[in-house]
Design brief:
The complex is a heterodimer.
Chain A (H helix, E strand, L loop, with lengths): L17 E6 L2 E6 L4 H7 L23 E6 L2 E2 L4 E2 L10 E3 L5 H16 L15 H9 L17 E2 L4 E3 L9 H10 L4 E4 L6 E4 L11 H6 L5 E3 L12 E6 L8 E7 L2 E7 L12 H5 L14 E3 L5 E3 L2 H17 L1 E4 L5 E4 L2 E4 L6 H14 L5 E2 L11 H11 L11 H6 L2 E5 L3 H4 L1 H12 L5 E6 L4 H5 L3 E4 L5 H6 L3 H8 L2 E6 L8 H12 L2 E5 L5 H6 L16 H11 L14 H9 L5 E5 L9 H10 L2 E6 L4 H5 L2 E4 L8 E4 L5 E4 L11 H11 L9 H11 L25 E7 L13 H4 L7 E3 L1 H7 L6 E5 L4 E8 L6 E5 L1 E2 L2 E2 H5 L6 E6 L3
Parallel strand pairs in A: 1-6, 19-20, 19-26, 21-22, 21-24, 22-23, 24-25, 26-27, 27-28, 31-35, 32-34
Antiparallel strand pairs in A: 1-2, 3-4, 3-5, 3-6, 7-8, 8-11, 9-10, 12-13, 13-14, 15-16, 15-28, 17-18, 29-30, 31-38, 32-35, 33-34, 33-38, 36-37
Helix pairs in contact in A: 7-22, 8-22, 8-23, 19-20
Chain B lengths: L21 H6 L4 H7 L3 H11 L11 H6 L14 E6 L9 H7 L1 H15 L3 E6 L4 H16 L15 E6 L9 H8 L13 H4 L6 E5 H19 L9 E8 L5 E6 L4 H7 L9 E5 L8 E2 L9 H6 L8 E6 L4 H15 L5 H18 L5 H14 L6 H25 L8 H8 L4
Parallel strand pairs in B: 1-2, 1-4, 2-3, 5-9
Antiparallel strand pairs in B: 5-6, 7-8, 7-9
Classes of the chains: A alpha/beta, B alpha/beta.
Chain lengths: 831, 439
């Protein structure tokens, strides 16, 4: 962007691709095609506006930004809307500061905007931060000449369970409708009626079911759109705003948290052009009531004599935890089922995906130093297939250590890449900011090509104008191996492959992505679902990788790390550890004496039932948690940890970009995981030096990160093509939706109401063969249980059904015990 | 007046029995222009229309040939997209009644013009957007299109020339704004009819973002006559800058209201003579030269030449040459109020000045006409008009204030008379509330 010049540009040549114009007497160079109102902004001249928004296409509807323009030495006959006019060489612009005509035009438009606007600022959510209020003060008349009848409408109109509309306050700037059309691609709201009866509205029986609806509330320049969750809750001038980072996905979206007297009142999108621009999804915006839900754990709990959890002091809880872990580390002698003496030794750590980079590091170090084990895994999600090391190899080869600075894929790359291939990733459901960038490319009609390896044309596919490459669940790797030459060619130039964490559920898929990248030269980015996953990877919360991404098997790296940590090289365990599945299996088999679990929900795991068996079987269980969960119910010691608003730290988003945030609200007694682990370490006579996130970050910085090793994984293509599903059966495709029954959306009924309705999706041919009819309930069953949902037809491959992973009425892993790629029985429901 | 100003070109076939049928049209020499045009080079046709000086008959008077020449030709960039011709037959301006009679009486002249124009601009698709209320007219036009297809004037390989053209007669839904060409295009695409941001102009990104010519019915119906008669012949009618014949629609207090074709530059005095003078001899008080969106004129302006320049010189605009004539029995504030009701109802709502301004102006006018106005209301109205004129998104807002500003300009006393008996506060009931007595 060109900087402001002073008026003495006189002899300097106009830079390439720029024009020189005069605004209020000041000469300025502006890039060709720039809109006048932006040039004015750069000069510090604020022209009032309502419909203009830098990320939306110009509309010119409100007419508030009128200025006088002289072009080619001739004044234009009418004042011009500076939000639609592009700069031109020799243009002379006079804003309200130097032109009576512009000033009067602006005052006139302002008066007209206000004639029908209610004077309810004192009770309006927007009052105090309202562009209309502010600009009426700066650019409006002192009084109104309007003595006629104001327009009234019934109010508020709930256009979804979350968004309420006060039509009287609306100035019809069309920011909300343009946002939904251009940015989100969800055309649920539009203008209705005509002239002075014109209003914003929704179609009958079609509420504003957009994942991004909250952004319209934020960009509404008046108080016409308000949220059910925040309406009448507080006044802007009573709020304290703190910048933060979204904890709900791996986007690293900038947010702003507004608090009043120690409580979070609302959250807004922050503005980071490199990451989320000015948008966030509704889960990020509205899902924060988990902070105050009934299930929050705020004091340490210890299982007492009675077998019940009882409140305990930190001192007692940490001592008991330390004793239990030390005993487990040394080895516990017990009695086997046949009366024989058994010994079990060792502690496994399940770190979970919601940790900050610093906290994940604390877990990684705690496991190695205090527990002397590599049995640590942050992956709290299904890992399928015979070769569970595949994902670990992929992450070491392509992901760990990549950042925007060292050539990693960035958001901006997604916007400009010629071809983007999504594998095992539904961007809108699993990484909404990624979806918005792809959508941006589609809207700009740059000719970007989006390919989507999946099962059906999801809203993501449709709204990014993507081409679906269909695959029967479980055969994605084979489909990828057999891509058409034309697609391979496309992947050879300026292409990005986005691979989601769900690739771990399909045997051979990571290897095939890796091979494809090797063959075509396409860049690869890994997009996990949870905020902490990427940071935990780089922090070494894995059985095969040390902090900084060094392989456990690398003796030199171990020795360097041991010396950095001030311990003997021989004290670092040399053997790669167990992964999540193996840790749980070992616990069940009595091969591990204790588990430390940080924020893992067993229902998220490959087989929730066997995970619960493991948690029940293990001799000693320490849980670090925010909320009461299936783990805390079984734990011997529960240590409360601080949620994001009470802790500082950083997330690494999927790009590897470090997203730091400070604590929003001071909460005495609320300690981050790193502090809890540090103190626990002290009780175990070990110093981790991670008392604060800053201390942990300092160590991480000193350790440095090894860049991804590259290379491609080998895959034995032994998988025969999927057999056609036997009669009465189908292959199950499933993944989670953005707004579903996830833990952090607890106590948000308004948000839940905007979630997508759960259906059993099936192709027409398969439906006919299975005897299913659209709209009629059908059941998907395994020997564990059955899920019954109404059927909806979609373009799935033959012999495939789809279920939402964890939506109301459809908890796939919990109910069926299987997941993506499994063969399930499908029958007409309603026994 | 001795000299007959009537020069029937467009209305030549109208008196014939069943003038709308293809047979009658052909008997009168119809489609001869098409045969001649198909033998010419498209660029020659554009040049011919440029030379003729034909100006758009929809109101703005933009030179037609120039508009056609803006369509990019070739195989690169925007030119490579399909080209479209769109006929604006959404005749909705109050007082205007020329396009619908033309399509009723002589639909084939429009169709012939469409084929010639499409050939000239290299379009293979033409849409005629007709006002939805004109159902009879739509039926007749559709029938004429069917006949033209059957006769080989439309469809593939027209008259063996290798040129293809399809015409679709599209029924609008009766919104005044859809007469604005970009709103018309949005409506035609199936969207909400509201004006588009310009640039890009329709010539580069019109219908479906492809190069598009949007012309008025009367403009295109004039084209076959120019092809036959030539540009010199065409220029022999009308004035230097506004050549050719024009259909003037006279309505209101005249003896014989209707459509009168005359060369551009004719005066109302001449037209009134043709129409049998003022009804019952009651003197003229005010009139509009081109529909309610053109500032009204008075009896002083009887000899204003009604061409594009003459009307502007008199402080108005030629518009659609819809002459609404009012005699002395009509109250100007009342008429202005009725017109404002129309604009308030038809404002599309996209931009603030027009949407809110019309809403406010109407309430003031209604109050004034009800005898509850004050002198300051007149100044307020003029100021509101000033805040709408040239500030709104499209010309609808400009048109909406025309009757008010011109009405006050020529007949301010009538507005004042409505306030003369009023107390100093805005409304009598307000005063009653304040002092508790009958003011």
């Amino acid at each position: 962007m060109t900087l402001i010049q002073d008026t003495s540009t006189g002899s300097r040549p106009v830079p390439e691709g720029h024009v020189r114009l005069t605004v209020d007497g000041a000469e300025v160079d502006a890039p060709k095609g720039e809109i006048l109102i932006r040039t004015c902004e750069r000069l510090g001249i604020i022209v009032p506006r309502f419909c203009d928004h830098p990320l939306l296409d110009p509309a010119g509807a409100c007419r508030q930004c009128l200025v006088e323009v002289e072009l080619g030495g001739r004044p234009m006959p009418k004042p011009q809307a500076s939000c639609t006019m592009t700069v031109a060489d020799g243009m002379v612009v006079k804003t309200q500061h130097t032109s009576h005509v512009a000033d009067k035009a602006q005052q006139g438009v302002m008066e007209l905007l206000l004639i029908n606007h209610p004077l309810d600022c004192p009770i309006c959510d927007k009052g105090g931060e309202c562009p209309l209020q502010n600009q009426a003060m700066t650019n409006g008349r002192e009084d109104s000449r309007f003595i006629e009848r104001k327009r009234t409408f019934p109010k508020p109109v709930a256009i979804s369970t979350q968004v309420l509309l006060d039509r009287e306050r609306c100035v019809l700037c069309q920011r909300c409708t343009r946002f939904t059309e251009q940015i989100a691609g969800d055309v649920f709201i539009d203008l209705l009626e005509r002239g002075s009866n014109q209003v914003i509205g929704v179609a009958e029986d079609k509420p504003f079911q957009s994942y991004f609806s909250g952004n319209t509330i934020q960009i509404c320049p008046v108080g016409a759109l308000t949220s059910a969750a925040y309406r009448f809750r507080s006044r802007p001038f009573d709020l304290v705003s703190t910048p933060g980072v979204s904890e709900h996905d791996s986007s690293g979206a900038a947010i702003r948290t507004d608090t009043r007297r120690g409580a979070v009142m609302r959250r807004l999108a922050g503005n980071d052009p490199e990451v989320n621009e000015e948008w966030i999804d509704d889960k990020t915006r509205f899902a924060f009531r988990y902070l105050t839900s009934q299930g929050r754990i705020t004091t340490p709990l210890v299982r007492g004599e009675s077998g019940e959890l009882e409140s305990a002091s930190w001192t007692d809880a940490l001592r008991i935890a330390a004793e239990g872990l030390l005993a487990a580390r040394t080895g516990v002698t017990g009695t086997g089922p046949h009366g024989e003496q058994t010994t079990c030794q060792g502690v496994g750590v399940l770190a979970g995906g919601r940790l900050t980079y610093e906290d994940a590091y604390a877990y990684a170090k705690f496991a190695r130093v205090a527990l002397r084990t590599n049995d640590i895994d942050f992956r709290a999600r299904p890992i399928g297939g015979a070769d569970r090391g595949e994902e670990l190899r992929f992450l070491a080869a392509h992901v760990v250590g990549t950042t925007p600075e060292n050539g990693g894929v960035t958001y901006r790359d997604l916007e400009t890449a010629a071809t983007v291939l999504c594998v095992a990733l539904d961007p809108e459901e699993e990484a909404s900011s990624v979806f918005l960038r792809l959508r941006k490319g589609a809207w700009a009609a740059t000719g970007q090509r989006v390919l989507h390896l999946g099962q059906w044309s999801t809203p993501s596919v449709v709204k990014t104008s993507a081409t679906l490459i269909p695959a029967v669940p479980g055969t994605e790797a084979d489909v990828l191996a057999g891509l058409a030459d034309e697609v391979l060619d496309a992947l050879r130039t300026d292409a990005v492959i986005l691979v989601g964490e769900r690739a771990a559920e399909v045997p051979g898929l990571y290897a095939e992505v890796s091979a494809l990248a090797g063959r075509t030269g396409a860049r690869v980015a890994w997009i996990p679902r949870r905020a902490g996953d990427r940071g935990a990877l780089d922090a070494g919360a894995l059985p095969t990788l040390l902090p900084g991404g060094h392989p456990v098997s690398d003796a030199a790296a171990r020795s360097a790390l041991a010396s950095a940590w001030g311990i003997a090289a021989g004290d670092l365990p040399a053997e790669p550890g167990r992964d999540t599945e193996a840790i749980l299996a070992a616990a069940t088999a009595g091969e591990l004496a204790a588990l430390v679990v940080g924020g893992v929900d067993p229902y998220d795991l490959t087989d929730p039932e066997s995970a619960l068996v493991a948690l029940r079987s293990v001799g000693f269980l320490v849980s670090l948690e925010l909320h009461t969960s299936a783990v805390t119910e079984l734990a011997d010691v529960v240590l409360p940890v601080a949620p994001d608003v009470n802790r500082a730290g950083s997330y690494l988003n999927w790009e590897g970009r470090r997203r730091e945030f400070a604590s929003t609200l001071a909460a005495p007694g609320m300690l981050p995981d790193c502090r809890v682990l540090d103190t626990l370490g002290v009780e175990m006579d070990v110093d981790l030096f991670v008392q604060t996130p800053a201390a942990a970050a300092g160590q991480l910085a000193a350790l440095g990160t090894r860049p991804a090793s590259g290379g491609s994984d080998q895959r034995e293509r032994t998988h025969p093509p999927a057999a056609p599903a036997p009669a009465g059966q189908a292959y199950l495709a499933t993944w989670r939706r953005l707004i579903d029954d996830s833990t952090l959306t607890v106590d948000e009924p308004h948000l839940a109401g905007t979630g997508r309705v759960a259906y059993l999706l099936v192709g027409a041919g398969t439906a006919a063969r299975l005897g299913l009819a659209e709209g009629v309930a059908a059941a998907v069953a395994t020997d564990r249980g059955a899920i019954e949902l109404p059927v909806k037809l979609a373009d799935l491959p033959d012999g495939v059904v789809w279920l939402p992973g964890n939506s109301p009425g459809s908890a796939v892993r919990t109910t069926l015990g299987v997941g993506h790629g499994a063969l399930v029985t499908v029958s007409t429901g309603g026994n | 007046m001795s000299q007959q100003p009537l020069a029937p070109v467009l209305t030549r076939n109208w008196p014939a029995p069943r003038s709308w049928s293809l047979d009658v049209y052909q008997e009168q020499g119809g489609y001869a222009g098409l045969r001649k045009a198909l033998g010419a080079d498209p660029d020659q046709l554009i040049q011919l229309v440029k030379d003729s000086g034909l100006r758009g008959r929809g109101g703005a008077g933009f030179p037609t040939g120039l508009k056609w020449s803006f369509i990019p030709q070739g195989t690169q960039g925007a030119a490579a997209k399909p080209h479209y011709l769109v006929i604006n037959a959404d005749e909705g301006e109050p007082g205007t009644c020329k396009d619908i009679p033309l399509m009723m009486a002589d639909p084939h002249s429009l169709i012939e013009g469409c084929v010639i124009t499409s050939y000239a601009i290299r379009a293979n698709f033409c849409a005629i957007y007709v006002r939805g209320e004109a159902l009879h007219c739509i039926r007749r036009l559709r029938h004429a299109v069917e006949q033209a297809y059957a006769e080989g004037y439309l469809g593939k390989d027209i008259l063996g020339s290798g040129f293809d053209l399809d015409i679709v007669v599209h029924a609008g839904a009766g919104a005044y704004i859809c007469g604005e060409e970009t709103a018309l295009l949005d409506s035609l695409e199936g969207r909400r009819g509201q004006p588009r941001l310009k640039p890009p102009f329709p010539a580069t990104a019109g219908l479906y973002a492809a190069p598009t010519v949007v012309n008025n019915v009367e403009t295109i119906a004039t084209v076959p006559a120019i092809v036959i008669g030539g540009s010199e012949w065409f220029r022999s009618m009308g004035t230097e800058k506004s050549p050719g014949p024009k259909i003037y629609s006279l309505s209101g207090h005249v003896e014989r209201p209707g459509q009168y074709e005359a060369p551009l530059g004719v005066t109302l005095r001449q037209l009134l003579e043709l129409a049998g003078g003022m009804k019952d001899g009651v003197p003229l008080k005010f009139w509009t030269p081109g529909g309610s969106s053109t500032p009204l004129l008075t009896a002083e302006h009887l000899d204003v030449p009604l061409d594009f320049e003459g009307a502007v010189a008199a402080g108005s605009m030629l518009g659609t040459t819809a002459l609404m004539v009012f005699n002395e029995t009509v109250s100007v504030p009342w008429a202005v109020m009725k017109w404002t009701e129309f604009y308030k109802h038809e404002s599309c709502g996209k931009c603030t000045p027009c949407r809110e301004g019309c809403y406010w102006l109407l309430q003031i006018l209604q109050r004034m006409v009800a005898g509850e106005g004050t002198e300051s209301d007149i100044d307020t109205m003029l100021d509101i008009c000033d805040n709408i004129l040239g500030r709104s998104f499209c010309a609808l807002g400009d048109g909406a204030v025309s009757p008010i500003t011109s009405g006050i300009k020529y007949f301010r006393q009538e507005f004042l008379d409505l306030c003369a008996v009023q107390p100093a506060v805005a409304r009598p009931d307000q005063l009653r509330d304040l002092v508790g007595t009958q003011a």
